[in-house]
């Protein structure tokens, strides 16, 4: 028996964690653009990084350190420090070397334009202004944003049956793979649970598959994608099932928030695929739907064009046939295993569903037991505007 | 020794072939929407059809006939006859049964909306007005268009050393996979060359890989894709190398015309990938670039954002590294194997190249001998407009 209680505080909700965000002049108009997360004792670290072969310098810098504990993560927006070669890694060393002595094995995380060297002097000057006694999770969450329109934070206090408790808090930026211009999604999760490193990594790997990876909509895995879980074990408490559930809820919430805040997106669509040959094929179909320009523009137009959904399922590579496929918008079935009965009345009902900000599109392939749920959004004029004009 | 001479006439350029297009009331404003290609003697047929599992009724109808010769292809726009089940196939049988007796084993080909039954009466009435003595290739090419903005036709006369000659003519519609709303690309090629059926099929298969399949930009293989080569052998002449070259040129031209006419597209970009581990990986990279929203919106914004190209190469799954990758816009190298030297002057030059209507983007992966060339376009507001509003 345990209980999850949603609380305020984001990454600072966990005992012993501090955070803040400041403006170092990387973004225009004095917007916050640098942040830190600090723990007053050393943390175990679990991570999931991008699979992109053009891995950004901060990730390469992290990986070459091998096993270590840290008490500090330094973040900057506006520059991804990607495609910057050995110089990009040396820039990180130089920046981190200027941090105060109580900072141990600091880690850097960057997001922004690819192929430009970091503005090192500005970042070093900014870091000198950090105050590690601050617990301003809102400022930190704001500083890591790029084209995001709102901060993404969540925290739980987990109450165990024996009266002990622990916390998990998190913040994220980006809109997953639907936000390729920024080439980055970042997520930082803190906890004071007494969890060991191997289990942290295992739970992170498990939940990433159905949360952040289920929100990746165009296969354009970025150069900087990072999910990082830091644990300082301060609470002394732990319960595997409770921790796992809280972690899953946090990651799922943040993944959906990213999609909801996708560039130019007006709708958050949940694709529930069932009846596939196996879970892998269900995932292939779900991702094909979240990635299809054909489907995304129909969503934007609020056009219940189920034919495009059928064509995308058929093109996905998964086993499927028109005699077994069933397509529903919420609970309204619009195509039923070869039965063509989409009339004007049904079109009116389906269009009404599509006008909502959030709804489900369900495809039952009628073949096996495979299932997968993915999160996608529409694609409209604003997406083109943001991405055609980004660098200039 | 042989000579290819470009000539007028499209599908009617080959001896014994006739074609016309009429308005049957499927499209608004009396636009042409039905067409035929007729040969006054029977033809061998070679085809390449969609790999989409939701294969449209006309293709299923064709396939279930087994081996046959024909002298007639009936085409309609505005309705794809896809996801229409057994009824869709029976509709075709009913329509074709009304054709005059001299039509042998007629074939039907459709393009348009998915999931709606054919307007059978209109099509039967339209077919009654066909005049198979007409050689109006322009009308036929216009009738099969949907959101296309221009007709796509080409023809060659092939002169052989012994004084004999033959013709190949063709028409196409669609904008390949960048035109998912219409869910169809169609291409019809006629020839009077004395080529045998097996060789027709073989050459079609070979050239499809580097032409139409190199222009598929989003993986959304449609339900109706059809490339059909008809030969009536009337010329009595044939030369393999000459035929193959002419066929390749015709298919490449039409594939590029489709991309150039892509919905809302303002630029035709040729992606030349070299130095990949093998040809397959080069193709993976080329298609990742043609499909990337990130790259397509940068093209539209005429923004020489080579970082997005690097990130897409890295995410494609092909072997690649920033130390070996080289990226060029035309002959202007913008990133050279780890050397970061993209300054303001180079940005100005690269931006000037991107303002052209056609240009090359070259990526040398520096790993092996693999190469592939693909054709892509940009994505702008007009694409969203066309696809968000298509059905309504």
In short:
Chain A has 392 residues and is α+β, with helices and mostly antiparallel strands. Chain A has helices spanning 57-64, 85-97, 120-128, 137-143, 197-210, 240-260, 279-291, 293-300, 306-315, 344-354, 381-388, and strands at 2-6, 17-22, 34-49, 70-76, 107-110, 152-160, 165-173, 186-191, 226-231, 268-276, 326-329, 332-336, 358-364, 370-377. The first copy, chain A, contains 11 helices and 14 strands.
Brief descriptors of the model:
Ubiquitin-like (UB roll); homodimer; five-stranded mixed β-sheet; 14 strands; alpha+beta; 392 residues; L-amino peptidase D-ALA esterase/amidase; 2 domains; globular; nine-stranded mixed β-sheet
* Distance between the first and last residues' Cα of chain A: 55 Å
- The total number of structural domains of chain A is 2
- Architecture of the largest domain in chain A, CATH level 2? 4-Layer Sandwich
What does the main sheet of chain A amount to? 9 strands, mixed
Number of helix segments of chain A?
11
CATH topology of the largest domain in chain A: L-amino peptidase D-ALA esterase/amidase
Shape of chain A: globular
Helix content estimate of chain A? 25-40%
Q: Please state the average pLDDT score of chain A.
A: 91
Quaternary state, please? Answer: homodimer
